[in-house]
Amino acid sequence: MQYPIDAYSFTRRGFLQLAMSSAAAVSAGSLSPALLRAAEATGGKRKARACILLFMGGGASQLETFDPKPGTKIGGDQNTIPTTVPGLEINEHLPCLARQMHRLSVVRSMNTGEGNHARAVYYLHTGYRVQGGIQHPALGSVAGEQLGPADFALPHYAAIAQRVGHHLQGPFPTAGYLGPSHAPFVVDEIDNPLENLATYGGIERARFDARAALRQAIDSDFDSRSGSRVGLENRELYRRAIRMMQSPLAGAFDIEKEPPAVRDLYGDTPSGKCFLLARRLVESGVTFVEVLLNGWDTHGDHFNKSKYLNGCLDRPFAALLQDLAQRGLLDETLVVWMGEFGRTPEVNKQAGRDHWTRGWSVALAGGGLAAGSIIGSTDDQGRVKDRPVAVEDLYATLGVALGLDRERTYYTQRERPMKALPPGGKPIDELL
């Protein structure tokens, strides 16, 4: 039986999605003192200029991926295989990744305590727990705002999803109080990602420019009388959308430009195309790319579903690591694999695993982080045994690797001061 990878649904579709790039960015030649301090925190070895987040919507099982327990009561019926890291074994249905594990490090001791899909997705995307009245920006929005080069033709934050149906496990990433200029540009038609970049009806450039100029004149008159912040942001979004449509860099979205050998490396599958597009965008200068793969909420028939899902993940994930490394991009690209939580050690009556927050895994690669390391462990009950890691600790680590200014103060729409990155977390020293 085939189990399709369902993707997070996005309601912010259409023309305005073309414009989700950063307006207030930090250029490479104007790093703030706080960014320099972050670089110094890694011993001067900070390299990451971009991040690829691979988000497994629904919560992938740590036991059937990077923290297997073969031969134990909770281990299930799947076997393990050795990897390129001596003594480290992972699930048998990840053979390609097993050959790339020397490029990855695994945190096996995530302990988050947030077992609701919507709240956990929010927590893992922003570093903050849900708070009434405040919409925090996703990490991709913060990274794009702080690190994305000004007047870059492509979005600073792109979210790639293969749309299969309209199932939604939790809230999709938003820019929160940073505003729509920093929201993700969503690609949910991976087989035709350039569809919305073409002019409607194929009208010629001069006619299109005339229409755009008329719209701008009408909007400018309205804004001068109303002073609406929403109106000003809307005008800026249109400006960026047009710039993106007319830029040669938009070709980065066309994976057909890749040589057949490279496309074959990733595989001719929805997930393979998503991962390949992520690499193309980062190579073209996009700061933050998120690949959203859903389907991991395996409350029933868990072992068959996890076998299928691992098969969809294995080849493109391994290809991404290999491809980035061969192109000299892995050191400057932080790769993060995670979901909103893990799966229970116990198997329920539907042969499934339920939500589990007390000991699950995150994998990281590149960006100057240590590779081939295992941080923390879980016991034979699936609970954290040593070195617990909270979401705030993970975000502190990502912030240092990316050189984000965690002390920068932003203001919500109601002028409430906020830190974009959560306070209190401690970087994972073993990775730095």
Notes on the protein architecture:
The chain has 432 residues and is an alpha/beta fold. It has one domain: 3-Layer(aba) Sandwich (Alkaline Phosphatase, subunit A). It contains ten helices and 16 strands. The strands form five sheets. The protein has an eight-stranded mixed sheet, sandwiched between helices. A two-stranded antiparallel ribbon has the order 2-3. The longest helix is centred in the C-terminal third of the chain and has 25 residues, at 302-326. Mean pLDDT is 85; it is low at 1-45 and 164-171.
**What would you report as the Rg, rounded to the nearest angstrom?**
21 Å
Characterize the largest beta sheet: strand count, sense, and whether it forms a barrel.
8 strands, mixed
Structural domain count: 1
Low-confidence stretches: 1-45, 164-171
CATH first level: which class? Alpha Beta
- The secondary structure category is alpha/beta
The sequence of SSEs as H and E is HEEEHEHHEEHHHHEHEEEEEEEHEE
Counting DSSP E segments of at least 2 residues, the number of strands comes to 16
Shape descriptor reads globular
**Arrangement of strands in the largest sheet:** 6-5-7-1-8-11-4-12
Name the CATH superfamily classification.
Answer: Alkaline Phosphatase, subunit A
Which topology does CATH recognise? Alkaline Phosphatase, subunit A
- Under the CATH scheme, the architecture is 3-Layer(aba) Sandwich
